[in-house]
Write a structure and sequence with these properties.
This is F-box domain-containing protein. By secondary structure, this protein is α/β, with parallel strands linked by helices. The chain has 17 helices and 14 strands.
Protein backbone atom coordinates (compact mmCIF):
# COMPACT_ATOMS: atom_id res chain seq x y z
CA UNK A 1 0.00 0.00 0.00
CA UNK A 2 1.11 3.66 -0.65
CA UNK A 3 0.42 6.58 1.66
CA UNK A 4 -1.00 9.58 -0.19
CA UNK A 5 -1.29 13.06 1.35
CA UNK A 6 -0.69 16.60 0.40
CA UNK A 7 2.78 15.87 -0.85
CA UNK A 8 1.62 12.77 -2.63
CA UNK A 9 -1.11 14.79 -4.32
CA UNK A 10 1.42 17.19 -5.62
CA UNK A 11 3.52 14.37 -7.03
CA UNK A 12 0.59 12.70 -8.71
CA UNK A 13 -0.30 13.50 -12.26
CA UNK A 14 -3.97 13.78 -11.40
CA UNK A 15 -5.30 16.71 -9.36
CA UNK A 16 -5.76 15.88 -5.72
CA UNK A 17 -9.53 16.46 -5.94
CA UNK A 18 -9.87 13.90 -8.70
CA UNK A 19 -7.86 11.42 -6.70
CA UNK A 20 -10.25 12.03 -3.83
CA UNK A 21 -13.17 11.25 -6.06
CA UNK A 22 -11.70 8.00 -7.03
CA UNK A 23 -10.97 7.09 -3.42
CA UNK A 24 -14.33 8.22 -1.91
CA UNK A 25 -14.57 11.99 -2.10
CA UNK A 26 -18.05 12.02 -0.44
CA UNK A 27 -16.64 11.00 2.91
CA UNK A 28 -14.23 13.90 2.84
CA UNK A 29 -16.98 16.40 2.11
CA UNK A 30 -19.00 15.11 5.15
CA UNK A 31 -16.12 15.62 7.48
CA UNK A 32 -15.60 19.23 6.24
CA UNK A 33 -19.27 20.20 7.01
CA UNK A 34 -19.50 22.61 9.88
CA UNK A 35 -15.77 23.25 10.16
CA UNK A 36 -14.17 26.53 9.53
CA UNK A 37 -12.01 26.56 6.40
CA UNK A 38 -8.92 27.58 8.25
CA UNK A 39 -9.26 24.72 10.73
CA UNK A 40 -9.62 22.09 8.13
CA UNK A 41 -6.74 19.62 7.76
CA UNK A 42 -6.29 17.43 4.76
CA UNK A 43 -6.59 13.81 5.82
CA UNK A 44 -4.08 11.18 5.07
CA UNK A 45 -5.49 8.47 2.87
CA UNK A 46 -4.27 4.97 2.32
CA UNK A 47 -4.80 4.16 -1.38
CA UNK A 48 -4.47 0.74 -2.95
CA UNK A 49 -2.42 1.15 -6.19
CA UNK A 50 -4.43 -1.61 -7.77
CA UNK A 51 -7.45 0.67 -7.79
CA UNK A 52 -5.50 3.05 -10.05
CA UNK A 53 -5.45 2.18 -13.71
CA UNK A 54 -2.22 2.13 -15.61
CA UNK A 55 -3.37 5.13 -17.55
CA UNK A 56 -4.33 6.94 -14.43
CA UNK A 57 -1.10 6.48 -12.51
CA UNK A 58 2.61 5.92 -13.36
CA UNK A 59 3.35 3.44 -10.63
CA UNK A 60 3.76 -0.16 -11.81
CA UNK A 61 1.34 -2.73 -10.55
CA UNK A 62 3.88 -4.29 -8.16
CA UNK A 63 3.89 -4.69 -4.49
CA UNK A 64 5.84 -1.86 -2.86
CA UNK A 65 8.59 -4.06 -1.47
CA UNK A 66 8.98 -5.90 -4.74
CA UNK A 67 9.09 -2.62 -6.70
CA UNK A 68 11.77 -1.10 -4.48
CA UNK A 69 13.89 -4.24 -4.47
CA UNK A 70 13.99 -4.23 -8.29
CA UNK A 71 16.22 -1.12 -8.19
CA UNK A 72 18.80 -2.51 -5.76
CA UNK A 73 22.40 -2.51 -7.15
CA UNK A 74 23.06 -6.22 -6.50
CA UNK A 75 20.11 -7.29 -8.57
CA UNK A 76 21.16 -4.97 -11.49
CA UNK A 77 24.76 -6.37 -11.67
CA UNK A 78 23.53 -9.94 -11.63
CA UNK A 79 21.17 -9.30 -14.52
CA UNK A 80 23.97 -7.61 -16.48
CA UNK A 81 26.32 -10.54 -15.85
CA UNK A 82 23.67 -12.93 -17.11
CA UNK A 83 23.17 -10.84 -20.23
CA UNK A 84 26.90 -10.63 -20.99
CA UNK A 85 27.33 -14.35 -20.47
CA UNK A 86 24.47 -15.03 -22.83
CA UNK A 87 25.91 -12.75 -25.53
CA UNK A 88 29.38 -14.24 -25.22
CA UNK A 89 27.98 -17.72 -25.52
CA UNK A 90 25.99 -16.61 -28.55
CA UNK A 91 29.13 -15.19 -30.23
CA UNK A 92 31.05 -18.40 -29.58
CA UNK A 93 28.19 -20.38 -31.06
CA UNK A 94 28.13 -18.17 -34.16
CA UNK A 95 31.91 -18.35 -34.56
CA UNK A 96 31.73 -22.12 -34.44
CA UNK A 97 28.98 -22.11 -37.02
CA UNK A 98 30.98 -19.77 -39.30
CA UNK A 99 34.07 -21.96 -38.96
CA UNK A 100 32.05 -25.04 -39.80
CA UNK A 101 30.67 -23.34 -42.91
CA UNK A 102 34.12 -22.17 -43.90
CA UNK A 103 35.52 -25.68 -43.48
CA UNK A 104 32.69 -27.04 -45.55
CA UNK A 105 33.42 -24.46 -48.27
CA UNK A 106 37.11 -25.38 -48.29
CA UNK A 107 36.20 -29.02 -48.53
CA UNK A 108 33.97 -28.29 -51.52
CA UNK A 109 36.71 -26.25 -53.19
CA UNK A 110 39.16 -29.09 -52.64
CA UNK A 111 36.73 -31.57 -54.15
CA UNK A 112 36.27 -29.27 -57.14
CA UNK A 113 40.04 -28.89 -57.60
CA UNK A 114 40.49 -32.65 -57.43
CA UNK A 115 37.79 -33.15 -60.02
CA UNK A 116 39.41 -30.48 -62.22
CA UNK A 117 42.81 -32.12 -61.75
CA UNK A 118 41.40 -35.49 -62.77
CA UNK A 119 39.73 -33.90 -65.80
CA UNK A 120 43.01 -32.26 -66.87
CA UNK A 121 44.83 -35.53 -66.32
CA UNK A 122 42.46 -37.24 -68.74
CA UNK A 123 42.79 -34.47 -71.33
CA UNK A 124 46.52 -33.64 -70.94
CA UNK A 125 48.65 -35.88 -73.19
CA UNK A 126 51.61 -35.39 -70.84
CA UNK A 127 49.65 -37.10 -68.09
CA UNK A 128 49.52 -40.28 -70.15
CA UNK A 129 53.31 -40.52 -70.31
CA UNK A 130 55.50 -42.13 -67.65
CA UNK A 131 57.03 -39.81 -65.11
CA UNK A 132 60.56 -40.46 -66.38
CA UNK A 133 59.65 -39.51 -69.96
CA UNK A 134 58.05 -36.24 -68.85
CA UNK A 135 61.17 -35.42 -66.79
CA UNK A 136 63.37 -35.92 -69.85
CA UNK A 137 61.10 -33.70 -71.93
CA UNK A 138 61.27 -31.02 -69.26
CA UNK A 139 65.08 -31.23 -69.27
CA UNK A 140 65.12 -30.37 -72.98
CA UNK A 141 63.24 -27.16 -72.16
CA UNK A 142 66.26 -25.74 -70.30
CA UNK A 143 68.58 -23.30 -72.12
CA UNK A 144 71.60 -24.96 -73.70
CA UNK A 145 74.28 -22.28 -73.50
CA UNK A 146 73.99 -21.30 -69.85
CA UNK A 147 72.16 -22.25 -66.66
CA UNK A 148 68.54 -21.04 -66.45
CA UNK A 149 67.67 -17.69 -64.95
CA UNK A 150 64.99 -17.32 -62.24
CA UNK A 151 62.46 -16.02 -64.76
CA UNK A 152 58.77 -17.00 -64.41
CA UNK A 153 58.49 -16.91 -68.19
CA UNK A 154 61.26 -19.48 -68.78
CA UNK A 155 61.93 -23.05 -67.78
CA UNK A 156 62.09 -24.45 -65.17
CA UNK A 157 59.91 -21.90 -63.36
CA UNK A 158 57.47 -21.78 -66.27
CA UNK A 159 56.97 -25.54 -66.14
CA UNK A 160 55.97 -25.31 -62.48
CA UNK A 161 53.18 -22.82 -63.24
CA UNK A 162 51.18 -24.68 -65.90
CA UNK A 163 49.21 -26.97 -63.63
CA UNK A 164 49.63 -28.99 -60.48
CA UNK A 165 50.54 -32.12 -62.40
CA UNK A 166 53.39 -30.36 -64.22
CA UNK A 167 54.47 -28.59 -61.05
CA UNK A 168 54.75 -31.88 -59.13
CA UNK A 169 56.87 -33.41 -61.88
CA UNK A 170 59.07 -30.32 -62.20
CA UNK A 171 59.76 -30.14 -58.48
CA UNK A 172 60.41 -33.88 -58.38
CA UNK A 173 63.04 -33.63 -61.15
CA UNK A 174 66.28 -32.51 -59.42
CA UNK A 175 68.17 -32.06 -62.69
CA UNK A 176 66.04 -29.02 -63.58
CA UNK A 177 67.26 -27.07 -60.57
CA UNK A 178 70.99 -27.79 -60.36
CA UNK A 179 72.03 -24.59 -62.15
CA UNK A 180 71.07 -20.94 -61.85
CA UNK A 181 72.28 -17.84 -63.66
CA UNK A 182 71.86 -14.46 -61.95
CA UNK A 183 72.37 -11.51 -64.27
CA UNK A 184 71.26 -8.66 -62.02
CA UNK A 185 71.71 -7.68 -58.39
CA UNK A 186 68.87 -9.45 -56.53
CA UNK A 187 66.57 -7.77 -54.10
CA UNK A 188 66.59 -9.07 -50.59
CA UNK A 189 62.83 -9.57 -50.55
CA UNK A 190 62.06 -13.06 -51.71
CA UNK A 191 65.53 -13.80 -53.10
CA UNK A 192 66.64 -16.03 -50.23
CA UNK A 193 63.37 -17.94 -50.32
CA UNK A 194 63.61 -18.38 -54.09
CA UNK A 195 67.16 -19.74 -53.93
CA UNK A 196 66.26 -21.97 -51.01
CA UNK A 197 63.38 -23.53 -52.96
CA UNK A 198 65.48 -23.68 -56.15
CA UNK A 199 68.44 -25.53 -54.69
CA UNK A 200 66.26 -27.59 -52.35
CA UNK A 201 64.58 -29.02 -55.45
CA UNK A 202 68.04 -30.08 -56.68
CA UNK A 203 68.27 -32.30 -53.61
CA UNK A 204 71.78 -33.77 -53.30
CA UNK A 205 73.00 -33.14 -56.87
CA UNK A 206 76.05 -30.88 -57.47
CA UNK A 207 75.22 -27.26 -58.17
CA UNK A 208 76.20 -24.71 -60.80
CA UNK A 209 76.22 -20.95 -60.25
CA UNK A 210 76.77 -18.23 -62.87
CA UNK A 211 76.91 -14.57 -61.90
CA UNK A 212 76.87 -11.65 -64.33
CA UNK A 213 76.52 -8.91 -61.73
CA UNK A 214 78.36 -7.31 -58.80
CA UNK A 215 79.02 -9.62 -55.87
CA UNK A 216 76.71 -8.17 -53.22
CA UNK A 217 75.65 -9.48 -49.76
CA UNK A 218 72.67 -11.58 -50.97
CA UNK A 219 74.98 -13.43 -53.35
CA UNK A 220 77.65 -13.84 -50.68
CA UNK A 221 75.10 -15.58 -48.48
CA UNK A 222 74.06 -17.83 -51.37
CA UNK A 223 77.63 -18.87 -52.18
CA UNK A 224 78.53 -19.36 -48.53
CA UNK A 225 75.54 -21.59 -47.92
CA UNK A 226 76.19 -23.84 -50.92
CA UNK A 227 79.99 -23.55 -51.36
CA UNK A 228 80.53 -27.22 -50.52
CA UNK A 229 78.03 -28.31 -53.23
CA UNK A 230 79.16 -25.99 -56.02
CA UNK A 231 80.62 -27.91 -58.95
CA UNK A 232 80.70 -25.09 -61.52
CA UNK A 233 81.35 -21.48 -60.61
CA UNK A 234 81.32 -18.79 -63.31
CA UNK A 235 81.82 -15.07 -62.77
CA UNK A 236 81.66 -12.07 -65.05
CA UNK A 237 82.85 -9.09 -63.03
CA UNK A 238 83.73 -5.48 -63.65
CA UNK A 239 87.45 -4.71 -63.24
CA UNK A 240 86.57 -1.64 -61.19
CA UNK A 241 84.52 -3.65 -58.69
CA UNK A 242 86.76 -3.64 -55.63
CA UNK A 243 84.39 -5.81 -53.57
CA UNK A 244 84.35 -8.84 -55.84
CA UNK A 245 86.56 -11.83 -55.27
CA UNK A 246 88.01 -11.03 -51.82
CA UNK A 247 84.52 -11.54 -50.42
CA UNK A 248 84.09 -14.71 -52.46
CA UNK A 249 87.18 -16.55 -51.32
CA UNK A 250 86.05 -16.31 -47.68
CA UNK A 251 82.94 -18.37 -48.44
CA UNK A 252 84.78 -21.68 -49.03
CA UNK A 253 85.84 -24.41 -48.82
CA UNK A 254 84.84 -25.40 -52.33
CA UNK A 255 85.27 -29.12 -51.81
CA UNK A 256 83.20 -30.10 -54.89
CA UNK A 257 84.32 -27.35 -57.27
CA UNK A 258 85.50 -28.68 -60.63
CA UNK A 259 85.09 -25.71 -62.98
CA UNK A 260 86.10 -22.14 -62.21
CA UNK A 261 85.64 -19.40 -64.82
CA UNK A 262 86.45 -15.77 -64.14
CA UNK A 263 85.74 -13.17 -66.81
CA UNK A 264 85.79 -9.40 -66.77
CA UNK A 265 83.65 -6.89 -68.56
CA UNK A 266 85.25 -4.12 -70.57
CA UNK A 267 85.66 -0.92 -68.62
CA UNK A 268 85.26 2.62 -69.94
CA UNK A 269 87.96 4.05 -67.65
CA UNK A 270 91.38 4.88 -68.93
CA UNK A 271 93.93 2.06 -68.53
CA UNK A 272 96.06 4.08 -66.14
CA UNK A 273 93.16 4.16 -63.69
CA UNK A 274 92.44 0.44 -63.66
CA UNK A 275 93.70 -2.19 -61.31
CA UNK A 276 92.44 -5.54 -62.51
CA UNK A 277 90.72 -7.77 -59.98
CA UNK A 278 91.00 -10.33 -58.58
CA UNK A 279 94.45 -10.17 -57.07
CA UNK A 280 96.64 -13.20 -57.59
CA UNK A 281 96.76 -14.14 -53.92
CA UNK A 282 92.94 -14.12 -53.80
CA UNK A 283 92.81 -16.53 -56.74
CA UNK A 284 95.44 -18.77 -55.19
CA UNK A 285 93.68 -19.00 -51.82
CA UNK A 286 90.38 -19.71 -53.49
CA UNK A 287 91.80 -22.47 -55.69
CA UNK A 288 93.54 -24.03 -52.70
CA UNK A 289 90.07 -24.65 -51.27
CA UNK A 290 89.01 -26.56 -54.41
CA UNK A 291 90.97 -29.85 -54.42
CA UNK A 292 88.80 -31.36 -57.18
CA UNK A 293 89.18 -28.45 -59.59
CA UNK A 294 89.48 -29.84 -63.13
CA UNK A 295 88.72 -26.81 -65.34
CA UNK A 296 90.30 -23.46 -64.63
CA UNK A 297 89.69 -20.51 -66.93
CA UNK A 298 91.00 -17.31 -65.32
CA UNK A 299 90.62 -14.67 -68.01
CA UNK A 300 92.77 -11.54 -67.78
CA UNK A 301 93.92 -12.05 -64.21
CA UNK A 302 96.65 -9.43 -64.11
CA UNK A 303 98.26 -7.53 -61.31
CA UNK A 304 97.98 -4.36 -63.37
CA UNK A 305 96.90 -3.54 -66.88
CA UNK A 306 100.28 -2.43 -68.16
CA UNK A 307 102.28 -5.42 -66.96
CA UNK A 308 101.86 -9.01 -68.10
CA UNK A 309 104.93 -10.88 -66.99
CA UNK A 310 103.83 -11.00 -63.37
CA UNK A 311 100.61 -12.80 -64.37
CA UNK A 312 102.56 -16.05 -64.29
CA UNK A 313 103.22 -15.54 -60.61
CA UNK A 314 100.13 -17.59 -59.92
CA UNK A 315 101.57 -20.86 -61.23
CA UNK A 316 104.30 -21.46 -58.62
CA UNK A 317 101.61 -21.56 -55.93
CA UNK A 318 99.31 -24.06 -57.64
CA UNK A 319 99.10 -27.82 -57.69
CA UNK A 320 95.97 -29.12 -59.46
CA UNK A 321 96.15 -32.89 -59.81
CA UNK A 322 92.54 -33.17 -61.11
CA UNK A 323 92.82 -30.45 -63.75
CA UNK A 324 91.39 -31.48 -67.14
CA UNK A 325 90.92 -28.15 -68.93
CA UNK A 326 93.20 -25.15 -68.68
CA UNK A 327 92.87 -21.81 -70.44
CA UNK A 328 95.93 -19.58 -70.01
CA UNK A 329 95.62 -17.80 -73.34
CA UNK A 330 95.76 -14.42 -71.57
CA UNK A 331 98.95 -15.26 -69.67
CA UNK A 332 102.48 -14.53 -70.74
CA UNK A 333 104.02 -17.52 -68.99
CA UNK A 334 107.73 -18.37 -69.28
CA UNK A 335 108.23 -21.94 -70.48
CA UNK A 336 109.99 -23.17 -67.36
CA UNK A 337 107.19 -22.04 -65.04
CA UNK A 338 104.64 -23.96 -67.09
CA UNK A 339 106.88 -27.03 -67.10
CA UNK A 340 107.29 -26.83 -63.32
CA UNK A 341 103.53 -26.50 -62.83
CA UNK A 342 102.78 -29.55 -65.01
CA UNK A 343 105.52 -31.57 -63.30
CA UNK A 344 104.17 -30.71 -59.86
CA UNK A 345 100.51 -31.31 -60.69
CA UNK A 346 100.72 -34.15 -63.26
CA UNK A 347 97.11 -33.41 -64.25
CA UNK A 348 95.07 -35.54 -66.70
CA UNK A 349 94.87 -32.53 -69.00
CA UNK A 350 92.70 -33.05 -72.09
CA UNK A 351 92.27 -29.43 -73.24
CA UNK A 352 94.80 -26.60 -73.27
CA UNK A 353 94.53 -23.05 -74.63
CA UNK A 354 97.97 -21.45 -74.34
CA UNK A 355 99.58 -18.19 -75.34
CA UNK A 356 103.05 -18.53 -76.78
CA UNK A 357 105.10 -16.23 -74.52
CA UNK A 358 106.70 -13.01 -75.60
CA UNK A 359 108.99 -12.60 -72.62
CA UNK A 360 111.02 -15.77 -73.26
CA UNK A 361 111.17 -17.95 -76.40
CA UNK A 362 110.34 -21.64 -76.40
CA UNK A 363 113.35 -23.83 -77.12
CA UNK A 364 112.93 -27.27 -78.54
CA UNK A 365 113.92 -29.08 -75.34
CA UNK A 366 111.64 -27.12 -73.02
CA UNK A 367 108.72 -27.42 -75.44
CA UNK A 368 109.21 -31.15 -75.74
CA UNK A 369 109.34 -31.50 -71.96
CA UNK A 370 106.13 -29.50 -71.60
CA UNK A 371 104.18 -31.49 -74.19
CA UNK A 372 105.52 -34.76 -72.85
CA UNK A 373 103.81 -33.95 -69.53
CA UNK A 374 100.41 -33.81 -71.23
CA UNK A 375 100.01 -37.26 -72.86
CA UNK A 376 96.19 -37.23 -72.54
CA UNK A 377 95.77 -33.94 -74.39
CA UNK A 378 93.16 -34.12 -77.17
CA UNK A 379 92.52 -30.42 -77.86
CA UNK A 380 95.26 -27.83 -78.20
CA UNK A 381 94.96 -24.16 -79.15
CA UNK A 382 98.11 -22.05 -79.51
CA UNK A 383 98.02 -18.26 -79.81
CA UNK A 384 101.01 -17.15 -81.84
CA UNK A 385 100.02 -13.58 -82.68
CA UNK A 386 102.84 -11.31 -81.48
CA UNK A 387 102.87 -7.63 -80.86
CA UNK A 388 104.84 -5.41 -83.21
CA UNK A 389 107.95 -5.48 -81.02
CA UNK A 390 107.92 -9.26 -80.47
CA UNK A 391 107.45 -10.77 -83.92
CA UNK A 392 110.66 -12.80 -83.94
CA UNK A 393 110.07 -14.55 -80.60
CA UNK A 394 106.52 -15.59 -81.49
CA UNK A 395 107.47 -16.89 -84.92
CA UNK A 396 110.31 -18.84 -83.37
CA UNK A 397 107.99 -20.46 -80.83
CA UNK A 398 105.40 -21.36 -83.48
CA UNK A 399 107.92 -22.94 -85.82
CA UNK A 400 109.51 -24.80 -82.92
CA UNK A 401 106.19 -26.49 -82.24
CA UNK A 402 105.69 -27.39 -85.94
CA UNK A 403 109.22 -28.83 -86.12
CA UNK A 404 108.71 -30.91 -82.97
CA UNK A 405 105.39 -32.34 -84.17
CA UNK A 406 106.96 -33.26 -87.50
CA UNK A 407 109.92 -35.07 -85.91
CA UNK A 408 108.07 -37.48 -83.65
CA UNK A 409 104.61 -38.88 -83.01
CA UNK A 410 105.44 -39.57 -79.37
CA UNK A 411 104.50 -36.00 -78.55
CA UNK A 412 100.78 -35.58 -77.91
CA UNK A 413 99.82 -39.10 -79.04
CA UNK A 414 96.10 -38.50 -78.37
CA UNK A 415 95.86 -35.10 -80.05
CA UNK A 416 92.75 -34.87 -82.22
CA UNK A 417 92.06 -31.15 -82.63
CA UNK A 418 94.75 -28.55 -83.26
CA UNK A 419 94.18 -24.80 -83.67
CA UNK A 420 96.84 -22.22 -84.43
CA UNK A 421 96.25 -18.46 -84.29
CA UNK A 422 98.99 -16.81 -86.33
CA UNK A 423 99.89 -13.59 -88.07
CA UNK A 424 102.41 -14.97 -90.59
CA UNK A 425 102.53 -18.31 -92.38
CA UNK A 426 104.98 -19.33 -95.11
CA UNK A 427 104.83 -22.08 -97.72
CA UNK A 428 107.33 -24.14 -95.69
CA UNK A 429 104.90 -23.99 -92.73
CA UNK A 430 102.10 -25.37 -94.90
CA UNK A 431 104.25 -28.23 -96.13
CA UNK A 432 105.22 -29.19 -92.60
CA UNK A 433 101.58 -29.20 -91.51
CA UNK A 434 100.66 -31.43 -94.43
CA UNK A 435 103.45 -33.83 -93.47
CA UNK A 436 102.19 -33.93 -89.86
CA UNK A 437 98.63 -34.66 -91.00
CA UNK A 438 99.71 -37.47 -93.30
CA UNK A 439 101.87 -39.11 -90.62
CA UNK A 440 99.09 -38.84 -88.04
CA UNK A 441 96.60 -40.58 -90.33
CA UNK A 442 98.27 -43.92 -89.62
CA UNK A 443 98.41 -43.49 -85.82
CA UNK A 444 95.85 -45.13 -83.46
CA UNK A 445 94.37 -41.69 -82.78
CA UNK A 446 94.64 -39.69 -86.01
CA UNK A 447 94.34 -35.93 -86.08
CA UNK A 448 90.70 -35.13 -86.88
CA UNK A 449 90.68 -31.34 -87.08
CA UNK A 450 93.16 -28.64 -88.07
CA UNK A 451 92.48 -24.92 -87.96
CA UNK A 452 94.92 -22.17 -88.92
CA UNK A 453 93.32 -18.80 -88.17
CA UNK A 454 95.01 -15.63 -89.39
CA UNK A 455 94.84 -12.24 -87.74
CA UNK A 456 92.18 -10.06 -89.44
CA UNK A 457 94.73 -7.31 -90.15
CA UNK A 458 96.94 -9.62 -92.17
CA UNK A 459 96.91 -9.21 -95.95
CA UNK A 460 95.43 -12.17 -97.77
CA UNK A 461 98.29 -12.26 -100.26
CA UNK A 462 100.79 -12.80 -97.42
CA UNK A 463 99.18 -15.94 -96.01
CA UNK A 464 97.04 -17.53 -98.74
CA UNK A 465 98.35 -21.00 -99.74
CA UNK A 466 99.34 -21.74 -103.33
CA UNK A 467 97.46 -24.17 -105.55
CA UNK A 468 99.71 -27.14 -104.77
CA UNK A 469 99.13 -26.72 -101.04
CA UNK A 470 95.39 -26.30 -101.56
CA UNK A 471 95.18 -29.53 -103.58
CA UNK A 472 97.10 -31.47 -100.91
CA UNK A 473 94.88 -30.15 -98.14
CA UNK A 474 91.71 -30.98 -100.09
CA UNK A 475 92.90 -34.58 -100.43
CA UNK A 476 93.17 -34.75 -96.64
CA UNK A 477 89.67 -33.28 -96.37
CA UNK A 478 88.32 -36.08 -98.57
CA UNK A 479 90.03 -38.55 -96.22
CA UNK A 480 87.97 -37.23 -93.31
CA UNK A 481 90.12 -34.48 -91.80
CA UNK A 482 88.32 -31.23 -91.02
CA UNK A 483 90.56 -28.37 -92.19
CA UNK A 484 90.04 -24.61 -91.94
CA UNK A 485 92.86 -22.43 -93.22
CA UNK A 486 92.13 -18.74 -93.51
CA UNK A 487 90.39 -16.00 -91.58
CA UNK A 488 87.73 -16.66 -88.98
CA UNK A 489 84.96 -16.03 -91.52
CA UNK A 490 86.69 -17.42 -94.62
CA UNK A 491 88.23 -20.79 -95.40
CA UNK A 492 90.72 -20.97 -98.28
CA UNK A 493 90.16 -24.73 -98.55
CA UNK A 494 86.35 -24.64 -98.83
Amino acid sequence: MVVLGEEAGEACDLPFAECGKVAGAGDVADERDGMPEQEYKKPTRVVDPETLGVEGHKLPTLAAAEYVSSFRPTSTLADMDNTLSFLRAKIVELDASIEAQRSALQDLEMQRNNALYQLNSKLDPMARLPFEIVSIIFAYCLPESAPPTPNPGMAPMLLAQICRFWRNIALATPGLWTGICIDSVPRREGFNELCKTWYMSARSLPLSLTLHCPFRPPLEALVKQHAHRLQDLNFTLCPCNKTGLPSLRAQGPYSSLKTLTLRFQSCVHRPSQITIFPRLDDIVKMIFEAPQLSHCEPERILASIDTQSNSAAILPYLSLPALERLDISYFDIPPQQLVDFLSRSTPPLISLRMNMPESQPWHLDSLFECLELTPHLTDLELFCIPRANAVDSRIYAFRTFIELMEQTQDVLPNLRNLTLYVRVFAREDYLRLISILICRQTSPTPLQSLRVIFHPNVLKSHVEPDDEVVVALKVLVRNGVRIHVGFADRNFIA
